[in-house]
Amino acid sequence: MTSQPEKTEQYFIIDFDSTFTQVEALDELARISLKNHPHREDIYKQIEDLTNASMEGRLSFTESLQQRVKLLCANREHLKMLISHLKKKVSTSFSRNTVFFKKHQDEVLIVSGGFKEFITPVVTEYHIKKENIYANTFVFDDEGNIIGYDKENPLSQEGGKVKLLKELNLQGDIYGIGDGYSDFQLKESGMIKKFFAFTENIERKSVAEKADHITPSFDEFLYINKLPRAISYPKNRIKCLVVGDIDEEALSQMKREGYNIRHQPTIEDKYLEEAGVLFCDDHHQPTIEQLEHAGRLKVIGCFGKVASKKLAEVAGQKGIIIFDDYKQNPRNADFIPKRVIAFMNEGKTHMSCNFPDLQPPRINNAHRLIHIHKNVPGILAQINEVFANHNINIVGEFLVTNPQIGYVITDVDAGYDTQVLNELKAIEHTIKFRLLY
């Protein structure tokens, strides 16, 4: 009997500033500590310029850090305020993936040129172990003022992340995730297997062009590495086609969710066929023939009323949900994107013009599956038979119908074979099937 090869250890080296959080913490600390300083705007600008020069590799990290700390004029009270602020600024795609951090707490390391005093209170709320946080430390005077930092710490020095990794001597495949030049240096040194340029908050072209992979969200990183994640498919991979007069606030909501926004003057087949979401208005709507070929399209947000009842019916028969509202209604800039997002995230169809109404509550620690099918008898029994055959526990199940379609949402316990998904898709009369989270 042959022995199984030992599983290779994996480690995930994650940056803090502009990666785990949306902001650069020292820049934010300056805004807090210099709030009443007469020349605060000039100093903010100096600190931001020093940060960017270092992150883009135009200035040594050591020089940048020394100059920024000198300009801060900060104390322990300012740090408390900063920590409260940073907890609200965790990157969206990190904050929704606490399950990953819980499952991989031994393999996740935060490695940052920032400071433990503000990093530790933020990341430990995500199951990251204190002993896996590597960062600089401030030096304080007797009054609690920041007067410097520990210059013996390798992370305070140029190439500090490389020096630290050499000291740690981790055995296994190491993946680096970050936005700055110091993160790329890990790849350049040959010490990590792959470097992922994280661009959810800022894209530094000089770093991104050298990366193994550009990851616009943490969901993307988890998806391509087949790791546990909160959502089944990264939103940056879902194209939102925008045609017509669409309010900018509506698009801002979709951008914040991470969708890939594509503007076009008209609804062309080639663009509609690759879109998962369509935003359109009274004067720009797809034809029935176009819907027949829009295989990826899941939802339409119409800023106006749908052109015909027939169009709405055909969309429903294709499993495409529509939310519409009169163009003159001032609420639609907020109403339509919120409805679209609620459907894409949780399967909610409330106030759709062509789907039966369903508003299931979110259930934690479960997977949610959507099954849209022709309204014929026996489909629910077949769905449940698939789960029964694989000994999968159903946590919650919701079915609604209209004359054309049936719409089932099933929440099941985590942990099942992908064959289950294939069997659900293969049920006769299935129109669309999707794993939400």
TrEMBL record:
Signal peptide: none annotated. GO terms for molecular function: L-phosphoserine phosphatase activity; magnesium ion binding. One of its GO terms (biological process) is L-serine biosynthetic process. It comes from the Bacteria. It catalyses: O-phospho-L-serine + H2O = L-serine + phosphate; O-phospho-D-serine + H2O = D-serine + phosphate. Its EC number is 3.1.3.3. Pfam families: ACT_AHAS_ss (PF22629), HAD (PF12710). The keyword Glycosyltransferase does not apply. The keyword Hydrolase applies. One of its GO terms (cellular component) is cytoplasm. Pathway: Amino-acid biosynthesis; L-serine biosynthesis; L-serine from 3-phospho-D-glycerate: step 3/3. PANTHER family: PHOSPHOSERINE PHOSPHATASE (PTHR43344). This is phosphoserine phosphatase. It comes from Mucilaginibacter achroorhodeus. The lineage of its organism: Bacteria, Pseudomonadati, Bacteroidota, Sphingobacteriia, Sphingobacteriales.
